[in-house]
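Objective 1b. Sequence-to-structure analysis of 3-dehydroquinate dehydratase.
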Amino acid sequence: MKILVLNGPNLNMLGLREKNIYGSETLNDIETKLSKIAEKSKCEISFYQSNAEHELIDAIHKAFKDNVNSIIFNPAGYTHTSIALRDAILAVKIPFYEVHISDIDSREDFRKRSYFSDIAEKVISGNGTHGYVLALEDAIKVQS
């Protein structure tokens, strides 16, 4: 089983930015935690983060070529703006989990609209960085 964890813009700044919203864990901390879970489940996991929309699209296309079974995706700011990323996800037909550290429904009005929620296997929002763990556990359970 292969799982890609894909992170959008500014998530490389976790642990430094707006700790009151995003907490103090870094992206590396999250990746370490997920790697341990994947290893126990004999699951191959890879990670990719980019601040560039086209690089995220390329990563989604590569996931298709690499026969990835599930994607855990935090599109970050692209959640509310990127039809191109939505189209890439639809094109590859890989089941994906939409993850948000904060509860986007309780934030600013412009953050309440996601271009991904209606096509995601599951949306996990407002659970802090533990949302990634919940998505991984569900992806492993569904693929097993």
